[in-house]
Amino acid sequence: MNLWGRVFAAGYDRAMAGAERTVLGEHRSSLLATAAGSVLEVGGGTGANLPFYGAGVRELIVTEPEEPMARRLERRLADHELPGRVVRAPAEELPFGAESFDYVVSTLVLCTVDDPALSLAEIHRVLRPGGRLIFLEHVRSEDPRLARWQDRLHGGWVLIGHGCHCNRPTLESIEQAGFSVSALEHDRFRGAPAIVRPLIAGVARASA
């Protein structure tokens, strides 16, 4: 972990506070209210989702590969009465058996993983047939003009955003990984730079 990674983790919650109030918190609340049974959250970051899990969650495992984030996540998890634990693992190598979970949660994660297709394949593998992927992700714009700007500014944004890619067609990637999208909402990441404003929130069902 480099110095910028440690600085990024330390300032993440403060930098995201406005977006959590105006748009992200509402999506987290509505989406995570449906999660139940055995739940895996990939790339849990500093634990922004933890306050929104309901009583239907029987088991919660949260993966996070970045050590500075994982330490903050563990401290936040200790403040909640959730049947959960933190596992240090990347989305591309989930250390769980096939068909282990009823739900997988991915919020602002698929923009930063090294390999989106492999990550989604792993998510599909660990979900039980018919299990659900809950997602909240910023994506490539459907507006060609903005999409071109996302491509132009992509390299600089990856550095500033500590590996965040602003131009990934994440919805298409989810569908190509064998998921059927059953609920979808398009929104805007208000207050963020234009290249990361397009936002999708929804639920997808894993094929058998």
Question: Can you describe what's shown?
Answer:
- This protein has five helices and seven strands, in the order αββαββαβααββ.
- The protein is an alpha/beta fold and 208 residues long.
- The chain has one domain (3-167, 176-189): Vaccinia Virus protein VP39 (Rossmann fold).
- The termini are far apart.
- The chain has helices at 3-32, 67-78, 116-126, 144-160, 170-176, and strands at 37-42, 57-63, 84-87, 101-107, 127-138, 179-188, 198-206.
- The relative contact order is 0.16.
- It is globular.
- The model has no long low-confidence stretch (mean pLDDT 93).
- The protein has a seven-stranded mixed beta sheet.
- β2, α2 and β3 (84-87) form a beta-alpha-beta unit.
Q: Which descriptors apply to this entry?
A:
single chain, 208 residues, alpha/beta, 5 helices
Short description:
The protein is α/β, with parallel strands linked by helices.
Radius of gyration: 16 Å
β-strand percent reads 25-35%
Query: Major β-sheet, in short?
Result: 7 strands, mixed
Instruction: Give the name of the CATH superfamily.
Output: Vaccinia Virus protein VP39
When the domains are counted, the total is: 1
The CATH architecture designation is 3-Layer(aba) Sandwich
Q: Roughly what is the average pLDDT, rounded to an integer?
A: 93
What would you call the shape? globular
Structural class: alpha/beta
Determine the number of helices (DSSP H or I, runs of at least 4 residues): 5
H-E string: HEEHEEHEHHEE
Unreliable spans are none
- The total of beta strands comes to 7
CATH domain class: Alpha Beta
